[in-house]
Design a protein that fits this description.
- The complex is a heterotrimer of chains A (303), B (554) and C (336).
- By secondary structure, chain A is mainly alpha-helical.
- Chain A is built from 13 helices and no strands.
- The two termini of chain A are 31 Å apart.
- Chain B contains 16 helices and 23 strands.
- In chain B, the strands form six sheets. Chain B has a seven-stranded mixed sheet, sandwiched between helices. Chain B has a six-stranded mixed sheet with strand order 16-20-15-19-17-18. Chain B has a four-stranded antiparallel sheet with strand order 4-5-7-6, with helices on one face.
- The relative contact order of chain B is 0.14.
- With 336 residues, chain C is an all-alpha fold.
- Classes of the chains: A mainly alpha (303), B alpha+beta (554), C mainly alpha (336).
- Chains in contact: A-B, A-C, B-C.
Chain lengths: 303, 554, 336
C-alpha cells in the first residue's frame, strides 16, 4: 500500500458530502501551509513552462572538457549548481526536469483517477458488479505497489516515460476505486437518490448528476496526495534505471541514479535533484493536507 | 502531561542516548592478521571450473585448482605448473607433458597422469546439459566440440585422446595443430580437479531442472558442497548471501600461502564496495570505478593497484542493418565518435584510445593500421558521398545494470557518443537492455540495433583470443561475410612459427581496420583497491591473481 | 467473532486464486518467451520446440495453469535461473532478512511516532506540535532511497559509526539456525553476533521507518485530539482523576485503536520501501531479490516470489482485520 492509499483510507472513514466549496476556498486562503504549498507548486509549474527562457544553458549540451580533471566541478559563477558527469549544467537540467516530474505525476494520477472513478462508480452503484471489481482491487492491493509498478514496466520490455506513467497510474487505480465506491454507497440510499429513482431518472444520470458530484471532494484530496506519491514512485523507478530510454533526459529520478556513484566526490549531484523531488512532493502534500482539513467537516470546528 | 508517559519518554530518550554512545564507542572489528576479506561483485555461480565463465567464479576457483601450465605472476607468459615440462611433436598434434611428482589433491587423491586424462576425458565426454556453449563455455571455445555433437552447435573437436604413460607422463593428441592450445591450458577452466571427489560428489550429474535451468545434480562445486584441486587454498564453506571461505592448504606442494583464510563477500553495488573498504569491512576489492580512484588515493589507509591493460571496448557496427553494409557509412561512424574526448574525460587517465581490436601488448599488434580521428565534418561528407540524406537515423544500444573494466558506466559513454554522432550527420535512437539476460545475447544474435556498446577482456595472451574470437567465423553480431578475413585468421591460428604468425596477425589487423567491422575506442587499466597494510597482491592482465602471495604488514 | 474470522478466511480463497492467475498471466505476457529465456537468443527453432515440449509450454494455457497450481500447491516453487537454487531455499534465506528489517523499521516508527504524536496533541498548536507536523511532512515527502543515501553517506561513510552494507560482519563466526540474525545470536548465545546484526539494521530501519513514522505521528496526534474531546474523558477530568491516569486509562487506550490498524496496514508499504532500502544498503532481503528477478526476467523467481509476497500481504491484512475485530467491540458484537 502506498502513502496515498493510507491517506485515502483515512478519507474513506468519513465520506462527506460536497457543497463546501466556497467555504473551503475561504479557509484555504487563510491556511499558511496551503499558501506555501501553492507557491512551491506554482514556481515549479512556472519553471516547467518557461524552462527555455529561465534555464541558463541547454539541459543536454555536453562539455567533456569541463570534467576532464575529474567529476565533477561544483557550483561556480558560470554554473550555479555545478555540472554533471557529462559537463552539463546542473541547474538547467533541474529546471527542465520539473517538466518531466510534473508531467509524469499528472498523467499517472489522471490514468489512475479516471479508471478508478469509473470502476468505483460501477462497483458502488451496480451491486452485481461490486464483488468482482472489489475482489480484483483486493488482488491488486496484495501486491506491493512499487513491485507492481516495476512489474508493469517490465511488461513493456523496457523503461520509458510513458511506461512509467502507465505503471504508476495502474498502481493508483485501487485507491480511487475504493474511495469512489465508499462515497457512492454512503449516498446510494439517500433520500434525493431514492426520489430521483422513483420519478424514473435513468441510472447513468443519477450517477452523473447527483452521486458523483457529491462524492468528489475526498477524491480531489486523494488525487492531490496521490500526485505527491506518484512523483516519488516515478523517481524511484528512475533510480532503478527504469525511467526514460534516453539517459540524457533530465528526469530527476534518473539524474539521481547516474550520480549516486559520485556520492563521495560530488555529493551535490545527488543532493540537488533529491531536494527538487522533496520540494515538489512537499508542495502537493501541503496542498492536499490543507484541502483535507478544509473539506472535512469534523475538523472544521478547530484551528 | 501524565507522569507515566513522562517516564516512558524519558526511558526512550535514555535508551536512544545509550545506543548512540555505545555505537560511537564500539570499535569496528578489524581484520585479524591472517584473514583477508575480499569484496566481490557477485556470488560465484559454481566452483567447478569446467562449467563457469564468469570472473567471480574463476577468481575463487583459481585459488583452489591449478592447471598443467600457469602464467608467470603478473604476465601472460606461460610457465610450468602441474606439468614441469612439455614437448609438441607430429607437427603440433601430439603434446607430451611431464608431470610434477609428489603432488596430491586436497582430498588425498594422488595427482598423476591418470588424473590428468580423467579431467580431459571428462570435458570431451560432456553430454546433455554440460555439452553447451553456455555451460562449458571455455572448453567449447578452445576445443571446438565434444565427443558427441551437441544439439544446435557446430562440432569440430580439437581433442582426440589422452594417454597415461606411467604415473608422471601424459600424452595428449589433437586432431589438428593449434597454436593457441598451450596458452589456453593456463585458463582456470582447465584446472585439474580430483577425480575421486568429482565421482563421489557427482560432478557429472547435472540436470536441466524442471525449469530448464542447468543445475548441478551433485554436491560438487555448489553452495554447501565441495570443490577439490591441488592449489594453495582449499574450500572451507560457501553459503549464498553470506560468505565464501577458503583456508590455507597446509600440505601444498609449493610455497605455502601466508594467509590462513580468505573470505569472499559479495557486495553487488560498486559504491557500496568502496564504502565497505573505507569502513574496514573488507580489505580489498576489484574493479574500482575511475571516479572513485581519487577517493581511494586520498585516503591514507588505502591504496590503488593497477592491472595491466588487457581489454578493448568497442562499438559494434552490424552490417546486416542497412546502410551499414556500405563502407563509407562505417567510416562515417568511426569519424563521428569522439573517442579521444571519452577516453580523456571518463577514464581518469587510466585509458588509452584504442586503434585496433587488441591491446598493444599482444603479439601481432600492428603500428600501421588506418586511424579515424574525431571529425564531424568528414563524417557528414562521407554520408553524403554514400548518397544518404542527413540526418541518418541509427538505432544505438547500450547495456544497463552493468559495469565492466573497459566500460565502467555504459550510459555515460553512450550519451557522449550519441551526442557526437548527432553532430556528425546521424540521428541516434537510444535503446537499452539489462546486461543479463538480454543485452549480451542480443548483441551476439545481431538484434541490438546497428550500433552497440560492448567490449572484451582477454583470457590468455594470444591474438586469437581477441581478433580470432571476433572475426574468424561468420557471426550474427557483425552481420558480414568476409571469406578473405576468415581464411587469413584461420591460417594464423594453425601457424606454429611465431615470427610468421605475428606477421599474419599484423596483416589481419590492418585488414580489419580498413574493413571496419566496428570501432574500438579504449584499452583500460582496471584498478583494484586495498587497505594499505595488504601487500603481495600481484595484478595480472588476465586477472589470474593468487592470494597465496598476499599478506598483512604492520 | 469466530464466524467473522471464518468468513474472512473463506473470502481469501478467491483472492488467492485470482492472485495466482494474475501472476501466471503476467509472466506469459512478459516479452520474450520462457523457452527463449532459458536457452538464450542463440537458441535454434528445434531446441526451442524441444524445451517447449519438455516443459509443457505447448499445452493449452488452462492446462499449464492447472499444472502450475498443482506444483505450487505441493510447495514446489521451482528453481531460480540466476542462482540455480530452489526458490523455497532462497526465500528461507531472504525472507527473514526483510522481516527483521521491517520489524526494526516499525519498532523505530512506533517508538518515536507515538510519543511524538501524543506530545504534539497535548501541546496542540505549540512548538512541539509544529515540529512534529513539519517532521511528518518531511517524512512523507522525502524519497526513501534519497534518505537512505543521505544516512549512509553521513553515518557510514563520513562518520564511520555504522556499517554500510549487508546484514552481518563476515568475520563473525555466527550460526544461523533461523536466519533471523538477531534472534540467532540470542539462541546460540552469541551476543556479539546479535549486536552486530542490530548495528547493520539501524540505518536501513531508520530509512524504511521514516514514512510509517510520519504517518503514525500524524494519526496518533489526530486520534488523541479526537479522544480528548470525548465526553468520557471530560467527565473523567471533571471527576478530578489525575491527568496522567486519564491519559493512560482513556486517551491512549482509545487512541490506540486507529493507530494499531494503521500500523498493521503498512506491510505493503514496507515491502515496497524495502526494495529501494535494500538496494542502497546491499541488504540481502526479498525486495532486491524480486526486483532483480523482474529486471533479469528470472521467470521462476518472479512466479514464486511475487506470489509468496502477495500471500504474506493478504495474510497480514487478514490478521489485522481479525485483531481489529477483537479490539473493537462494535465489530466483535456484530459478528455474533
Amino acid at each position: 500500500m502506498s502513502i496515498a492509499e493510507m491517506e485515502a483510507r483515512e478519507l474513506e472513514l468519513d465520506p462527506t458530502g460536497g457543497g463546501l466549496w466556497h467555504d473551503a476556498f475561504q479557509r484555504l486562503r487563510r491556511s499558511p501551509a496551503a499558501i506555501v504549498g501553492v507557491v512551491m507548486i506554482a514556481i515549479l509549474v512556472f519553471l516547467a513552462i518557461f524552462a527555455p527562457f529561465v534555464a541558463p544553458y541547454s539541459p543536454t549540451e555536453q562539455n567533456l572538457d569541463a570534467i576532464a580533471a575529474g567529476c565533477c566541478p561544483g557550483p561556480s559563477r558560470e554554473h550555479l549548481l555545478g555540472v554533471d558527469d557529462l559537463g552539463r549544467d546542473e541547474l538547467s537540467r533541474l529546471i527542465y526536469g520539473a517538466r518531466y516530474s510534473l508531467l509524469i505525476g499528472v498523467v499517472a494520477v489522471t490514468i489512475g483517477l479516471s479508471m478508478g472513478l469509473l470502476l468505483g462508480a460501477v462497483a458502488g452503484y451496480f451491486r452485481r458488479a461490486d464483488s468482482p471489481i472489489m475482489r480484483l482491487m483486493d488482488i491488486m492491493l496484495a501486491i506491493p505497489g512499487f513491485l507492481m509498478a516495476i512489474g508493469i514496466v517490465a511488461l513493456f520490455g523496457q523503461g520509458g516515460l510513458l511506461q512509467v506513467m502507465i505503471a504508476i497510474g495502474v498502481v493508483n487505480i485501487p485507491i480511487f476505486t475504493r474511495l469512489m465506491r465508499g462515497s457512492i454507497i454512503a449516498q446510494r440510499d439517500n433520500d434525493y437518490v431514492l426520489a430521483a429513482r422513483s420519478v424514473g431518472v435513468p441510472n447513468r444520470k443519477i450517477l452523473g448528476s447527483h452521486i458523483v458530484p457529491n462524492a468528489i471532494s475526498p477524491v480531489i484530496v486523494a488525487a492531490t496526495l496521490a500526485l505527491a506519491t506518484a512523483i516519488i514512485d516515478a523517481a524511484g523507478l528512475g533510480f532503478l534505471g527504469l525511467g526514460p530510454q534516453d539517459p540524457a533526459t533530465p528526469e530527476w529520478g534518473t539524474m539521481l541514479t547516474n550520480t549516486v556513484r559520485y556520492l563521495q566526490t560530488a555529493p551535490f549531484l545527488a543532493i540537488f535533484p533529491g531536494i527538487a523531488i522533496v520540494i515538489a512532493v512537499m508542495g502537493f502534500n501541503l496542498i492536499g493536507d490543507a484541502l483535507r482539513e478544509t473539506l472535512d467537516p469534523k475538523l472544521r470546528g478547530r484551528t | 502531561m501524565g507522569k507515566g508517559l513522562k517516564v516512558l519518554l524519558a526511558a526512550v530518550a535514555v535508551a536512544l542516548t545509550v545506543t548512540a554512545v555505545t555505537l560511537a564507542a564500539t570499535t569496528r572489528t578489524g581484520a585479524t592478521s591472517d584473514t583477508l576479506v575480499f569484496g566481490t561483485a557477485s556470488e560465484p555461480t559454481s566452483l567447478d571450473g569446467a562449467v563457469v565463465s564468469d570472473g567471480e567464479s574463476l577468481r575463487v576457483i583459481d585459488q583452489i585448482t591449478e592447471g598443467l601450465v600457469g602464467l608467470k605472476n603478473g604476465t601472460t607468459i606461460v610457465v610450468p605448473k602441474l606439468a614441469t615440462s612439455w614437448k609438441a611433436s607430429s607437427g603440433g598434434k601430439v603434446w607430451t607433458f611431464k608431470l610434477r611428482k609428489g603432488v596430491s589433491f586436497q582430498d588425498g587423491t594422488p595427482f598423476n597422469a591418470k588424473a590428468v586424462c580423467a579431467n580431459f576425458n571428462r570435458w570431451y565426454n560432456f553430454t546433455g546439459a554440460f555439452a553447451s556453449d553456455s555451460t562449458s563455455y571455455y572448453y567449447y571455445t578452445v576445443f571446438g566440440g565434444y565427443k558427441k555433437a551437441a544439439a544446435g552447435l557446430t562440432n569440430t573437436p580439437l581433442y582426440r585422446s589422452c594417454k597415461a604413460v606411467g604415473d608422471s607422463t601424459a600424452v595428449i593428441t589433437l586432431r589438428r595443430p593449434n597454436s593457441a592450445f598451450l596458452g589456453a591450458l593456463s585458463l582456470t577452466a582447465f584446472g585439474m580437479q580430483s577425480p575421486t571427489a568429482m565421482a563421489k560428489y557427482g560432478a557429472n550429474k547435472g540436470t536441466l531442472s524442471k525449469d530448464g535451468v542447468f543445475t548441478p545434480g551433485g554436491q560438487y562445486g555448489v553452495p554447501g558442497g565441495v570443490a577439490v584441486g591441488t592449489g594453495p587454498f582449499k574450500l572451507e564453506s560457501w553459503k549464498i548471501g553470506d560468505k565464501l571461505v577458503i583456508v590455507r592448504n597446509d600440505s601444498y606442494w609449493g610455497k605455502k600461502a601466508f594467509l590462513r583464510r580468505v573470505i569472499f563477500r559479495a557486495i553487488p553495488d560498486n559504491a557500496a564496495r568502496l564504502q565497505a573498504l573505507q569502513t574496514g569491512e573488507i580489505q580489498g576489492y576489484d574493479l574500482v570505478e575511475p571516479q572513485d580512484i581519487p577517493t581511494v588515493q586520498k585516503n591514507s589507509n588505502l591504496k590503488v593497484l593497477d592491472r595491466p591493460a588487457f581489454n578493448v571496448a568497442y562499438v559494434t557496427i552490424n552490417q546486416a542493418v542497412k546502410p551499414f553494409d556500405n563502407p563509407l557509412v562505417r567510416q562515417a561512424v568511426a569519424y563521428g565518435l569522439d573517442r579521444a574526448g571519452v577516453v580523456k574525460s571518463f577514464y581518469a587517465g587510466r585509458g588509452t584510445v584504442a586503434n585496433e581490436f587488441m591491446p598493444p601488448e599482444v603479439v601481432g599488434y600492428s603500428k600501421t593500421v588506418k586511424k579515424y580521428p574525431y571529425n564531424p565534418e568528414k563524417a557528414k561528407q562521407l554520408l553524403r558521398q554514400a548518397g544518404l540524406t542527413l540526418p541518418v537515423e541509427v538505432e544505438f544500444w547500450y547495456p544497463t545494470d552493468v559495469s565492466r573494466p573497459y566500460m565502467p558506466d555504459p550510459a555515460r559513454n553512450f550519451q557522449a557518443f550519441a551526442a557526437s554522432l548527432d553532430k556528425s550527420g546521424f540521428k541516434v535512437v537510444p535503446k537499452s537492455a539489462p546486461w543479463r539476460p538480454d543485452y549480451v545475447s542480443r548483441v551476439q544474435a545481431g538484434t541490438a540495433g546497428a550500433l552497440n556498446l560492448i567490449g572484451w577482456t582477454g583470457d590468455f595472451g594470444d591474438p586469437d583470443n581477441f581478433i580470432g574470437t571476433f572475426f574468424r567465423t561468420k557471426q550474427g553480431q557483425w552481420g558480414f561475410n568476409n571469406p578473405k578475413l576468415f581464411a587469413l585468421l584461420n591460417k594464423a591460428l594453425i601457424e606454429t612459427n611465431l615470427t610468421k604468425r605475428a606477421a599474419l596477425y599484423r596483416q589481419a589487423n590492418n585488414m580489419i581496420m580498413s574493413y571496419l567491422p566496428g570501432v574500438p575506442y579504449v584499452h583500460t587499466k582496471p584498478a583494484l583497491a586495498f587497505q594499505k597494510n595488504v601487500v603481495g597482491y600481484i595484478p595480472s592482465p588476465v586477472s589470474l591473481e593468487p592470494f597465496s602471495t598476499v599478506r598483512f604488514v604492520g | 467473532m469466530l464466524r467473522f474470522a471464518v468468513r474472512r478466511l473463506i473470502l481469501l480463497v478467491p483472492i488467492l486464486i485470482g492472485l495466482s492467475l494474475l501472476v501466471f498471466i503476467w509472466i506469459r505476457a512478459l516479452p520474450g518467451s520462457p523457452a527463449q529465456a532459458l536457452l538464450g537468443e542463440r537458441a535454434t527453432d528445434e531446441s526451442i520446440a524441444q524445451v517447449r515440449n519438455q516443459y509443457g509450454l505447448d499445452e493449452p494455457l488452462y492446462e499449464q495453469y492447472w499444472r502450475y497450481l498443482q506444483t505450487v500447491g505441493s510447495g514446489d516453487l521451482g528453481t531460480s535461473i540466476a542462482s540455480r537454487r530452489p526458490i523455497t531455499e532462497e526465500i528461507q534465506d531472504r525472507f527473514p532478512a526483510t522481516v527483521e528489517l521491517a520489524i526494526s523499521a516499525m519498532l523505530f516508527a512506533t517508538l518515536i511516532g507515538i510519543p511524538l504524536g501524543f506530545l504534539a496533541a497535548k501541546r496542540h498548536g505549540g512548538a512541539v506540535d509544529h515540529a512534529s507536523l513539519f517532521l511528518s511532512l518531511i517524512g512523507v515527502s522525502i524519497p526513501i532511497f534519497f534518505l537512505a543515501l543521505l544516512l549512509k553517506w553521513a553515518f557510514a561513510v563520513e562518520l564511520g559509526w555504522l556499517p554500510s552494507v549487508g546484514r552481518q560482519d563476515v568475520l563473525i563466526d555466527a550460526e544461523h539456525p533461523t536466519n533471523f540474525y538477531v534472534l540467532d545470536g540470542i539462541i546460540t548465545g552469541n551476543w556479539y553476533a546479535s549486536w552486530d546484526a542490530i548495528k547493520h539494521l539501524i540505518l536501513p530501519a531508520i530509512a524504511l521507518g521514516s514514512i510509517p513514522l510520519a504517518i503514525i505521528a500524524r494519526i496518533t496526534r489526530a486520534s488523541v485530539l479526537d479522544v480528548q474531546n470525548e465526553d468520557y474523558v471530560r467527565t473523567a477530568r471533571a471527576k478530578g482523576i489525575s491527568s496522567g491516569a486519564v491519559d493512560r486509562r482513556h486517551v491512549l487506550r482509545n487512541a490506540m485503536l486507529p493507530i494499531s490498524t494503521i500500523v498493521g496496514l503498512q506491510v505493503g508499504l514496507l515491502l515496497s520501501g524495502a526494495i529501494l532500502t535494500e538496494t542502497v544498503f546491499a541488504f540481502p532481503g526479498i525486495g532486491t531479490w524480486l526486483q532483480m528477478a523482474i529486471v533479469n526476467r528470472d521467470y521462476p523467481v518472479i512466479q514464486g516470489g511475487v506470489l509468496f509476497v502477495a500471500i504474506i500481504v493478504v495474510l497480514v491484512n487478514l490478521l489485522v482485520d481479525i485483531s481489529y475485530g477483537f479490539l473493537n467491540p462494535r465489530i466483535r458484537l456484530a459478528g455474533r
